[in-house]
Amino acid sequence: MKQKIQVYVLSGFLGSGKTTVLKRIVEECKKQDKQLGIILNELGDTNVENHLFDNEKMVELLNGCICCSIQDDLKQTLDQFVKNPVDTLLIEGTGVANPNEIIEAIANPSYIDQFELRSIISLVDASNYLDYQSIFSSSKEIRTLLKEQITCATLIILNKTDLISEKKLEKINSQLRKLIANEVPILHSTFGNISVDELLKKRVRTLNLSQAEQNSSCSCNGSEHDHDDHDHVNHAKIKAVKLENLPVFEKKAFEKWLKGLPKDIFRGKGIIQFKGENSLYSFQLASRKLFLEKVEADIKQTPVIILIGNDLNSMSIKESYEQTFFNRL
User: Fold this and answer.
1) Which of 154, 190, 201, 248 has its CA 20 to 30 Å from the CA of residue 227?
2) Nearest to 302, CA basis, from 271, 268, 325
């Protein structure tokens, strides 16, 4: 009998640490000599993290969210993996995707003999969770989306616990436990440092298509999506702003500019170059913290900055960028 492709879905709001966990799973699967497939979904038209998975069979779903505007693309991609099977398929949705849409696609009767959904892993950013749940600092759409991502999970990873107090941690645990079944584990982590054995456990017992369909309501209005070359409006007015044709930055000036960006920016990432450095750097902005890492010299990615946030004023951000850097040159 033909072996089914084992599927793991990674979910979580912007900046929660999905890609870090994805890397851990990829590394372990490679150690086990498993044939691996990856589906990466991005809101914008550029994936600045594809260099992390250069040697894997990866499909990028860009310019939209799996949950609405590119549902057909997801189904076509699943069909590709049916024709060219792998042992394990990892699916990472955008930070604003409702995982139930992915579950619905996998649960389709036409795939019953092809795919085995083993776990739906949802990452929660402990450092921002209480703010995202507050009616004073968050929107109803974001609160609804977070609930969708949490309630469908078979494993919750409460990430970045090192950034909060024990008192806040207890409060978040209590709130999460009210949303999920008793058998769903809540594991604490920093930098997604979770045992791979825990990540790869089979946690989905039954796959109910009707339940997935019932819970797959999209937080956005697909007809209102704006798909021009640079800005993409999605759930809760989430927008990705793309900056291209970058200069070579002075490191301190770049860091200062990032710190001065609007607080509505949940996530930033990109490939950049600093003065005095031959190497390119990958930058990650999450939880208002900046992380920099040198990338391989032969990376094919052109330097670019992606900023993602709620109802961003792209014109204002671009003006700030041009005034800060191009007036210096």
Assistant:
1) 248
2) 271
Torsion of CA 174, 177, 182, 186, to 10 degrees: -90
Note the CATH number of domain 5-214.
3.40.50.300
Rounded Cα gap, residues 66 and 79, in angstroms: 15
The arithmetic mean of pLDDT across residues 218-237, rounded, is 43
Task: Give, in degrees to the nearest 5, the angle at Cα 249 between 244 and 255.
Answer: 100
| pTM of the shown model | 0.84
77-115 tens-digit pLDDT: 999 999 999 999 999 988 888 888 889 889 889 998 999
- Give the start-to-end residue ranges of the domains of the chain: 5-214, 237-326
Class of CATH domain 237-326: alpha beta
- What would the two tokens of residue 301 be? 């990615």
Structure confidence at residue 233 as a pLDDT band (50, 70, 90): very low
What the block records as the tokens of 219 is 């937080």
CB contact at 8 A, 259 and 253: no
> What is the C-alpha separation between 158 and 187, in angstroms, rounded?
6
